[in-house]
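Letters spell out the chain; backbone shape is given numerically. Take this protein:
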Amino acid sequence: MRKLSSFALLLISFTSAAPAQWAQISSQSERSPNKGLEHRYLVVEDSNSGERASLELAIFSTKSCRLRVVDQPSEPRIDLEDVMTRGNFLAGVNGGYFDPGYRPIGLLIVDGTMIAPLQKARLLSGVLSASTKKIQISRVAEFSINQKPDAAVESGPMIVDLGKSVRGLESRKAARRTFAVVAAGDKAAIGFCSDVTLADLSNILAIVVIPDFKIQRVLNLDGGSSSAFWFKRANGSAFSIAEQKPVRDFVTVVAK
C-alpha cells in the first residue's frame, strides 16, 4: 500500500506540472476618440487546469497614433490615471524598471532627450523605441542610438519573437504583467495581463487571435505592483487599472 500510495503521489505531481494549454475563449472591443485606436479585452483559459487569465490591449495604427514616454524624475510621483487625465492621452501603461531610489534601470529617452543610458544586463534584453515614423521592439544588440528615437524604454525579457513564444522564460511566479507589442503592418499595442508567469504570458500572446492584428514581437515591461493600464473611451470616460505603488515612468499613446 505504501508503494502504491507513493506512485499515486508521483503521478499527481506529474499531472499538476503539465504545461498549460492556453486557448482564447472570448474577445470584446470598444473604440476610443481616435478611430485608429481600440481597447480589446480578451479572456484565455488553460484547458488542463481551468485557470483563466484576462488581457487588456490598447491597439492602434502608427499612422494615426504615436508613443510618448512620460517621466517622473522627482516627487510627487502621481499614478497613471492622474497623469492621463492631465493631458491629451488616449491610453497608457507603466514603463520600465527603476531602483529603490527611482533611478531608471536601462535606457530611457523622453521627448528626444536621453535620461539614462543603455545597460547590459540579462533581464534587459530589448528596447521599445518610437519616432514619428515608426515603433520598434529591438533586441539590445540590434538597437542603435543613431536611430535618434523620440522615445525609448529598455526592458525585458522578450516575450514573443518572430510571432512565436520565447523558450526558457520564468514559469513559477505569477504576477500582473504589462507589455508592449509590435504587429504586422502599421499596428502596435500596449497591454496588461492578470496574474500569470512570464512563460504563460509568452504562450498566451502567441495564440491570441485578433482580426488584422498579427503579433510579431512583445517586450515585457515592469510588472507586479507597478502594473497599470488606462484607456480613454469614445464617450470620454476611462477604463483604468491602477498600479499598487508609484513608478518612475509611463508609456503612453497620443494622437499624431
Remarks:
- The helical segments are 2-16, 80-85, 198-207.
- Confidence is low (pLDDT under 50) at residues 1-16.
- The CA atoms of residues 58 and 231 lie 7 Å apart.
